[in-house]
Design brief:
By secondary structure, the protein is mostly helical. The chain contains 19 helices and six strands. It has a two-stranded antiparallel sheet. It has a two-stranded antiparallel ribbon with strand order 3-4. Strands 5-6 form a two-stranded antiparallel sheet. Helix 1 runs parallel beside helix 18 (470-505), helix 5 packs across helix 7 (180-210) and helix 15 (385-414) packs antiparallel against helix 17.
Length: 525
């Protein structure tokens, strides 16, 4: 039988390392494009000030990039450590995009990062700019392959189960590559990274202006961050709508849980702006609805319903029954690969066989399951509704806040008034953590909302773990927590050290300005 403690600890370990790793990835995705924009201005104008800006922000980019690579390597080790059966079951599909991403991250990106830092005196301006733009493209392509792999877990296309090898095998790599979920997830994720990069530059520049340091440098940096950030924040909201549509098409239970929609509403479904989900009674108290919105987002129509949780649970019971037939046919084919009846049955119900595997949490052989076991398995497909409900709403609220902040920043930049508002600069500074909060919440919605599936409809998470003891997982979990805590301390110290020094103390900015701090100027008036 499955050890629930091993499953829980393995999930916790992967969640902690993944969430920590994603602190660095989006900043890399966003900051590298800001470097490319700044260097493009330098090459077009020939003004040394823009080169100095690229060099300073490049230092912080380099620290972040190194941490991202270090945390990414250890995260991938876990597929062999804690998720051995998962790796066996879907490795034929999942391994290819991961291998390509690894090659790009370690060879392409690593080489380009080295040339970026070492090439200032060895390359012409145009050649160095080309390296920076290739670095920007390379980091985004690296993210693409990771998201292709992740999207396949959400929407497993282009693959088929082989009863002889007991594995999922690729039938169409093109379908895997052009998975519609991957496309929506990629553009939404990288846009969120662009927001993080923009907020990073905006907030640190605001800190300089509040202290009257590097004023010209900070103004220019904030102008770039405001412009790029506004475009990115608008893209996140628009492309998030596309992601919502992809979820409603392929992960109906996740969509229903995000909305705490227990019963199917008449189309077009409304959006629940606020409410208190009650899991025990399967209702949402004090719900405030906005008519039509969820129907338009989820179905792109006014006449299609979004199924409620209770209806989806009943549908799952039918899929479990079909899956039991497929499971029985699969075992028959293992003994006699030429059994025509078993082939026909498996071909008819193989898409539901994963639902039969949900029963292995309650009974060793799904064919021996009782109606009570089937009810439990069907109910287990409901994710944690309150967590998804609130995570999604906080994420969306942050998204609209970013649009407002960057729009106001852009307006101030156009009026050359960025350093005239102390309250705005403080707001920009204190907003620094928010993009990370919203991005991590987005991943909680995406991954926690997929439970109990490791591969949606194919492989339950509980079956993917390695044959290890809870003590062994505790040991590796403790090691990872210690290692990542040390990295967090190193990263925080380095980032704070170089951000506090600024381009003037690092010798990048040619003149240390003596403009009085903004607080003093404001108080004097």
């Amino acid at each position: 039988m499955i050890d629930p403690e091993v499953v829980t600890l393995s999930r916790l370990q992967f969640a902690l390392t993944a969430l920590y790793h994603f602190l660095f990835v989006p900043l890399t995705l966003g900051l590298v494009w800001i470097l490319a924009i700044m260097e493009s201005v330098y090459v077009m104008t020939g003004r040394e000030v823009w080169k100095r800006m690229v060099q300073f922000w490049g230092v912080l980019f380099g620290i972040n990039f190194a941490m991202g690579v270090a945390t990414g390597v250890t995260m991938e080790f876990q597929f062999g450590m804690n998720w051995a059966y998962y790796s066996h079951y879907v490795g034929d599909v999942f391994g290819t995009p991961l291998a390509i991403e690894g090659l790009m991250a370690f060879f392409l990106e690593g080489t380009l990062v080295g040339v970026f830092f070492m090439g200032w005196k060895r390359l012409s301006r145009h050649a160095h700019l080309l390296v920076t733009w290739f670095l920007a493209l390379g980091t985004n392509l690296s993210a693409l392959w990771i998201l292709i792999a992740n999207a396949w877990m959400q929407n497993p296309v282009g693959a088929k189960f082989n009863p002889q090898t007991m594995r999922m095998e690729v039938t169409s790599f093109t379908d895997v590559l052009f998975n519609p979920v991957a496309q929506a997830k990629f553009v939404h994720t990288v846009s969120a990274g662009y927001v993080i990069g923009s907020m990073f530059v905006l907030s640190i520049s605001a800190w300089y202006l509040l202290r009257g340091r590097n004023v010209d440098f900070a103004r220019r940096s904030m102008t770039v961050a405001a412009s790029f950030g506004l475009a990115a924040a608008l893209s996140v909201v628009v492309l998030g709508d596309e992601s919502g549509y992809a979820v409603s098409e392929n992960q109906k239970m996740k969509m229903a849980a995000i909305e705490a929609m227990w019963e199917t509403e008449p189309p077009p479904a409304s959006f629940t702006l606020f409410g208190i989900p009650d899991v025990q009674n399967r209702t949402t108290h004090y719900a405030m609805h906005i008519p039509w919105v969820m129907g338009l987002i989820g179905t792109r129509s006014v006449d299609k319903p979004i199924l409620g949780i209770n209806n989806l649970v009943e549908d799952t019971k039918g899929k479990i029954g079909n899956g039991i037939q497929a499971y029985d046919a699969m075992l028959t084919l293992r003994k006699d690969p030429n059994d025509a009846q078993a082939k026909s049955t498996l071909a008819q119900y193989d898409s539901d066989m994963g639902y039969a595997l949900l029963l292995k949490r309650y009974v060793a052989d799904p064919r021996q399951a009782t109606p009570s076991d089937i009810d439990k398995a069907a109910a287990s497909t409901i994710p944690n509704v309150p967590v998804l409900f609130w995570s999604f709403r906080i994420m969306v609220a942050c998204g609209f806040y970013f649009i407002a902040l960057f729009a106001y920043s852009f307006w101030l930049a156009s009026k050359r008034r960025l350093d005239n508002n102390r309250w705005y600069l403080r707001l920009a500074l204190y907003s620094l953590p928010l993009p990370w909060v919203s991005t991590e919440l987005g991943w909680i919605v995406a991954e926690y909302g997929r439970q109990p599936w490791a591969i949606e409809g194919i492989l339950p998470t509980a079956l993917g773990v390695s044959s290890v003891s809870a003590g062994q997982v505790w040991t590796s979990l403790s090691g990872f927590v210690l290692f990542y805590s040390l990295l967090a301390i190193v990263d925080a110290v380095l980032m704070l050290k170089y951000a506090r020094k600024g381009p003037d103390e690092l010798g990048i900015w040619p003149v240390r300005e003596i403009t009085p701090p903004l607080e003093s100027t404001v108080s004097a008036h």
